[in-house]
Every structure is written in C-alpha cells, then in structure tokens.
Design brief:
Elements: H1 3-25, H2 35-47, H3 50-82, H4 84-98, H5 106-113, H6 117-141, H7 145-153, H8 158-195, H9 201-211, H10 214-246
Helix pairs in contact: 2-10, 3-4, 3-6, 3-8, 3-9, 4-6, 5-6, 6-8, 8-9, 8-10, 9-10
C-alpha cells in the first residue's frame, strides 16, 4: 500500500467519524458543524471568490514578509558568523528575541505603523527573522574546516570564498531553518490578521467567530492546513531532497 493511499484511507476514516459524530451528538451546528456543512461552506466560498480573495491577500503578505525575513536573517547570520564582536552582542540579543512570540510585538506595531498592512507585515517579518538568523549563523559556523582550508589553499577569499564555499555548504541547514521560519511566519500572519484588519484568512476566522458560523471557521482552518501541507511537501521537502541528492546524502 502506497503512502498516498494510506493517507486517503486515513482521511476518509476521519471524515466518516466526523460526520457520524456531528449527526449523533445532538450539538447545534454553531458548536459542532457536520463535515457536509463545512464542505458546502468551503465550496460556496471558493465559487463566489470570497475565500480565494482572502487566500490571495494572506499569501501576498506572507511572501513579502517571508522574503524580507530571509534576507535579513541571512545577512545577520553572516555578521554573527564573521565577526566575534557581533556574535557576542547581536547574537546574544537575537537569541533572546527568538524566545518572544511574534504576536507580542503587535501592540507596538499598531502604535508605530497603525492598524494596517504594514503592521501585519512587520509581525510576519519578526516571526521569521530571528529563526532564520540563528539557522543561518549556525549553518555558516558548521561548514567543515577542511572545505575552508582547501578553498583558501587554492586562493579563494573574500566574496568568492563566501559564495563558493560557505553558502553552498550551509544550504542544508538553512533549508531546515526556512521550514521553521515559514511555519512561524504563517502563524504570525494568522494572529496578526485575527487582531488586525484588511481582509485575509485571519479576518475570515474572526468574522466566522463573531457570527457564530463554525462551518466558516473550520473551512478556513482546512484552507490554512492545505496551504501549509502543500508548501511543506511540495516546496521545502523537494528542495531538501534536491540538496541531499546534490551532496550525495541520499
């Protein structure tokens, strides 16, 4: 039995249990909607474009914030790896900031930028930057000394040394950091949209809660889970396997 078939059977079993439980429990729909009701709401939301518009808004914010976080994280990670003074100062601060949940920054973001898209982008960026910084710095530090000595023996130095030795050798670890940073950005985005404004999936969750439409809430949760699964299995896992094949790890 293939992995895909196992997953399909597992999801089908959960769907049957969900539908049967919701119908036999006697609970009202706003507390425990049936699967058929959720799927109907999901289908209608896709057909009328409401969910698609929210997905587009959320993903556009996420991709922009995530791109900024990757750029900042790799740059800060390089500085921490390259300079001892930066490691002792900024590296210590980054470790402390990483332990602070990104949503804690939201009140400051509202004061600084107002209740708008910039505040949400700030939260998304904060959610991934510190994790990416730690992963990048760790990846740079764990490049085998043998690689560095051989490259320097052949005259590699400066930007050429970083581009041809340090970056390629640290890619496997940075990909793991990318996966974690993506998850943190996704969670930060949903939290920011729940508390903020301007549409998006998080705003749909809040609307469903305020209207007592749990079928809408669960529909959006399904969309969030599907997007997260697609990104992890299609993008990051394939990228990781590609790097492993290139480095002879598979």
């Amino acid at each position: 039995m293939t992995t895909a078939l196992r997953r399909i059977i597992f999801i089908a079993i959960i769907a049957v249990i969900w539908e049967a439980t919701s119908r036999l429990s006697g609970l009202p729909a706003f507390m425990f909607p049936s699967l058929s009701q959720v799927l109907t709401t999901l289908f209608n939301g896709i057909v009328d474009g409401q969910i698609l518009v929210a997905v587009f808004k959320s993903l556009s914010r996420l991709l922009i914030g995530f791109a900024i976080a990757i750029s900042l994280g790799v740059f800060l990670g390089y500085l921490i790896w390259r300079f001892k003074l930066v490691e002792d100062t900024l590296g210590f601060l980054v470790t402390a900031l990483q332990s602070i949940p990104s949503i804690v920054w939201f009140p400051l973001a509202i004061i600084w930028f107002g209740l708008n898209d910039i505040s949400i982008l700030f939260i998304v960026t904060i959610g991934a930057t510190w994790t990416m910084t730690v992963s990048a710095a760790s990846g740079f530090k764990n490049v085998p000394t043998l690689y560095q000595r051989v490259a320097k023996t052949f005259g590699s130095k400066g930007f050429h040394f970083v581009r041809t030795v340090i970056l390629p050798a640290s890619v496997p670890q940075m990909i793991s950091g990318l996966r974690i940073a993506w998850a943190f950005s996704w969670r930060a985005l949903m939290a920011g949209e729940l508390l903020g404004a301007g549409g998006g999936l998080g705003q749909m969750l809040e609307m469903g809660r305020s209207l007592g439409q749990m079928d809408l809430v669960i529909s959006v949760m399904i969309i969030i889970g599907v997007i997260g699964t697609i990104m992890d299995n299609i993008v990051f896992m394939r990228l990781e396997k590609s790097v492993q094949r290139k480095w002879g790890l598979n």
